[in-house]
Amino acid sequence: MTTKIIIAGPRGKMGKEAVQLVRETEAFQLAAVVDSKNAGKIVKELPDMPDEQAPVFDDMRTCLEETDADVLIDLTTPAAGKQHLELALDHHVRPVVGTTGFSEADVEKLREKTEAKELGAIIAPNFAVGAILMMKLSQMAARYFSDAEIIEMHHDNKLDAPSGTAAKTASLINEVRPHKQQGHPDEKEDLDGARGAEVDGLHIHSVRLPGLVAHQEVLFGGAGQTFKIRHDSMNRQSFMPGVKLAVENVLHLNTLVYGLENIME
Ligand SMILES: NC(=O)C1=CN([C@@H]2O[C@H](COP(=O)(O)OP(=O)(O)OC[C@H]3O[C@@H](n4cnc5c(N)ncnc54)[C@H](O)[C@@H]3O)[C@@H](O)[C@H]2O)C=CC1
Ligand SMILES: O=C(O)C1=N[C@H](C(=O)O)C[C@H](O)C1
């Protein structure tokens, strides 16, 4: 069976790789793309795009109304991604969302919607297998080290901070440790933000620099020792096996899955 796919954000850094992935995968077919402009063209008329005939839309609702599709892959911006996901569910198209910047409240609202419609959806803050392992191992380590700080490092075109991966890592760690306000009880910031952002007592530091792609360290500290888990994505191809896995799995789901670790064997 062929899976018919819409890609939102096809000219972006991730979107380009996703177009390539769909073309290379025999069981996948590119049904349409949703770009922020270029409506009425076909994919091959967009700059640096392969010889692909699928139509380009600049409006998700129109695309969903006019396209026979099974899955939407969204790789856009936090604001657009939230709208696209809801519209896809309304049109019975299963979303695979790589776009980050979703709050826990957003995720819960979307979970309710998928359950009401009995339709699968996947929100994956990170598609790279190494990043999933970093998150899972961090949760395991937090059982033994209750003090942790997250340092995420990304390219300077990133819109959201902290990264979706850092937010998800913090929530996985906080699931297994008792509430802990880290640092000295009397500590005070002489410069706002010096201690980073805080999620339930755990601190996240966001670095943005040209030259970086996507990197994260999770530092644990205990009496007389520290322990560090680090993951580096050197390029966006690192995310594509996870995108493929998510598309294959979302077809068999009837609720929202938040995080690829929930569908990895
Ligand atoms: N889950 C994961 O493993 C990964 C997630 N990401 C996330 O994916 C998203 C995209 O990242 P990049 O490709 O690096 O960004 P990018 O800035 O290179 O691409 C975003 C694309 O979305 C398009 N876009 C914006 N609004 C749109 C709309 N309303 N409709 C259609 N297209 C629209 C832009 O024109 C642009 O081409 C970000 O949220 C990022 O955090 C990035 C890498 C890995
Ligand atoms: O914007 C990016 O580049 C990335 N975004 C995701 C995130 O926010 O965690 C995944 C990865 O870190 C790359």
From TrEMBL:
One of its GO terms (molecular function) is 4-hydroxy-tetrahydrodipicolinate reductase. It is found in: Cytoplasm. CDD domains: DHDPR_N (cd02274). It catalyses: (S)-2,3,4,5-tetrahydrodipicolinate + NADP(+) + H2O = (2S,4S)-4-hydroxy-2,3,4,5-tetrahydrodipicolinate + NADPH + H(+); (S)-2,3,4,5-tetrahydrodipicolinate + NAD(+) + H2O = (2S,4S)-4-hydroxy-2,3,4,5-tetrahydrodipicolinate + NADH + H(+). (S)-2,3,4,5-tetrahydrodipicolinate binds at H155, G164, T165. Residues 4-127 form the Dihydrodipicolinate reductase N-terminal domain. One of its GO terms (biological process) is lysine biosynthetic process via diaminopimelate. Pathway: Amino-acid biosynthesis; L-lysine biosynthesis via DAP pathway; (S)-tetrahydrodipicolinate from L-aspartate: step 4/4. NAD(+) binds at G9, P10, R11, G12, K13, M14, D35, G98, T99, T100, A124, P125, N126, F127. Its EC number is 1.17.1.8. HAMAP family: DapB (MF_00102). Catalyzes the conversion of 4-hydroxy-tetrahydrodipicolinate (HTPA) to tetrahydrodipicolinate. This is 4-hydroxy-tetrahydrodipicolinate reductase. It comes from Salibacterium salarium.
